[in-house]
Amino acid sequence: MSPQPDDLASLKDDMIAFVEGHGLRRFPGLIDYEEVQCVPWKSADNPDGWKDFVELAKAAGAPFLIMDSWRLEREELDVMIQRLSNAEFSNDEDIEEARWLRTYVGKTGFVQLGFAHQGVMMVYEASTAWYDRYQGILEMAEDFSGMPIDEPGLDDEP
Q1: Phi and psi (nearest 5°) for 14?
Q2: Each residue of 85-126: pLDDT tens digit?
Q3: Nearest residue to 107 via CA among 91, 130, 82, 133
Q4: 134-146: b or e for each residue (b if 16 or more CB lie within 10 Å)?
Q5: Other C-beta atoms lying within 10 Å of the C-beta of residue 152
Q6: Residue-wise pLDDT tens digits, 56-77
Q7: What pTM did the predictor assign?
Q8: Which of 7, 66, 78, 139 sits in a 20 to 30 Å window from 56, CA-based?
Q9: Beta-ladder partners of 4
Q10: What span, in angstroms and rounded, lies between the C-alpha atoms of 52 and 155?
Q11: 64-71 and 108-117: which strand pairing?
């Protein structure tokens, strides 16, 4: 499969145009695998497999597609770097890798399309390599912040 570009914004724009060009509507929302039964689309070596996914949604009678995307915001990244810096068990490599992600601020790293069919969510997702790394670092930062580290204000009740 050809590698994804570093910014999926143009892919997202193409998806919007293609979905609307097929007479389907878009519903903004994220399909959470932990909340509903899902079947992921496997497009193997076809970078345009999402087009087949949209055509299948139309053929299945879906009146709309659920669509989501995620763009890296500086504030979000700064909070994660701060959490890693304050974590007792993080190391300099983790923090440096998180700082490296600043290169991608403002870029779209994830897009998702989905539709419901017979009680199951059919889902197509595309992500960049840096988004996948970001998710790994974010999970680590959340794990570290779950340790007994005092962060005033988060759990304080008035």
Answers
A1: -65, -40
A2: 887 777 788 889 999 999 999 999 999 999 999 999 999 999
A3: 130
A4: beebbebbeebbe
A5: 6
A6: 999 999 999 999 999 999 999 9
A7: 0.83
A8: 7
A9: none
A10: 46
A11: antiparallel
